[in-house]
Amino acid sequence: MAVSNSEATWKGSLKEGAGTMKVGTSYEGPFTFASRFETGPGTNPEELIGAAHAGCYSMFLSALLGNANYTPNNINTKAEVHLGAGPAITKIVLTCTADVPGLGAEEFEKLANEAKAGCPVSKALAGVGEIVLNASLAG
After folding, report:
1. Cα distances (Å, whole numbers) of residue 82 to 59, 97, 112, 129
2. Looking at domain 44-124, which CATH architecture does it have?
């Protein structure tokens, strides 16, 4: 069983504070109220969810294509994550373009929809059966 680790640190109040998000050992970047709810520099949790969803979807589609005896030259997926009132993620639009020699449009549509339903991140975003919280105060 694979385990992936990410973390975030936030310092200060909601609007004036700032934080850092770290994804494994490969990415670390800042986030603020402005980067999340306005147009400020930095990233935000929704962008990272979008990246995770796009990456997972692309890999899952590649696996399904391989199982159907197709080898993709390229799969590019973009995820548009909409943050609405609440705040809440209200919509995710996945846009995928794939170059797969020998594959017809009808079969591609079938496999693309299977990938949307079956990728682990799609499943996680549809509902989580268990959330574990380990919380403690420093000091």
Report:
1. 23, 21, 21, 23
2. 2-Layer Sandwich (3.30)
